[in-house]
Amino acid sequence: MPPHMTAIEASPTLLTMTLDGEEVSFTRGETIYEVSRRHAKDVPTLCYDPRLDPFGGCRMCVVEVEGVRNPVASCTTKATPGMVVRTHTDALEGHRKTLLEMVVSENRQVDVDPLRGYASQELTQLVDRYEARTGRFRGKKSGTSKTGDPNPFILRDYEQCISCYRCVRVCAEQEGDYAISVANRGFATQITTEFDGLLKESTCTFCGQCVQTCPTGALADRKSLRAEALPGPITETRTVCTYCGVGCAVDLMTKGEKLVGVRPAMDGPANEGALCIKGQFAYDFVQHPDRLKTPLVRDASGELVPASWDEALDRAAAGFVKANAEHGRHSVYAISSGRAPTEASYTLQKFIRAGFASNHVDNCSRG
Predict the structure, then answer these.
(1) Class of domain 7-88 as given by CATH
(2) pTM
(3) How far is Cα 28 from Cα 15, in angstroms, rounded to an integer?
(4) pLDDT tens digits for range 284-312
């Protein structure tokens, strides 16, 4: 045992603290917020994302620690043995309500469409929870929106920004792009790109990470918002992106029979909330008006003409049989599209391997 450590500090089995009157255990290095969340304490926060380094900017997660004069940010304060913590008191709840009242006083609106992004309802839900729509700090609005940015993917509505910097941090810490940063200070604080230019002129890869972590909808999915006026609830369906071999888990957002957006699964084992530009935004082909609605076969003159499914399948089967008979099993080759469902790719490789005893099968997005 190192000479500077006590017996309690050296033994991981003896690390305990008191949380809201209950003795709980914790692991060395855990923050008070992490311990609280693991023990089902509902500590609110706006600047926290479990994928990012603790920031302590919003001050919503402050807690009272016995022996410490002022409340501390639980997301940046490490738990220590014997610590006595209170997560909910009248003073703390009053502090949180006042903070929310001040935050929303600078924003254009509180309510935004959930199609804006995965975390876009966090501020709205906290404001309603704390009944903070009082308007008592009503005044000047902050943030200058870049709604004229011509990129087709990300709406930059900075009049909704609360300077939590989650977008800046996820771009740097998770993506390593450093495409956006913070300019100015105080009331003039603004999220911006290098030289205040357009996103397409920056190092932005349009992965959409900033959109999905934004708790106010200040950064929004432009493509999803095209379906804002469609009636009906939003339904989520979990699946796996087929564009490459990583296996990113995604949630398909639908209204009725229409696909209105794709979101990364925050609990996806392969991607943990990340997606590339294709996985995030390249889904227009699903309902594109130019998609074929009936099979086509070539007539005697070589022109493609509409046919029934039975006719098309019989024609394809005859072609496979002829090629195999005349040139052998290795004359048959198949390639699966990255736009096809995973099940279709599986069926295709099974057809080639089991049907023709060949491994001549590939996928356009296997890399």
Answers:
(1) alpha beta
(2) 0.85
(3) 7
(4) 999 999 999 999 999 999 999 999 999 99
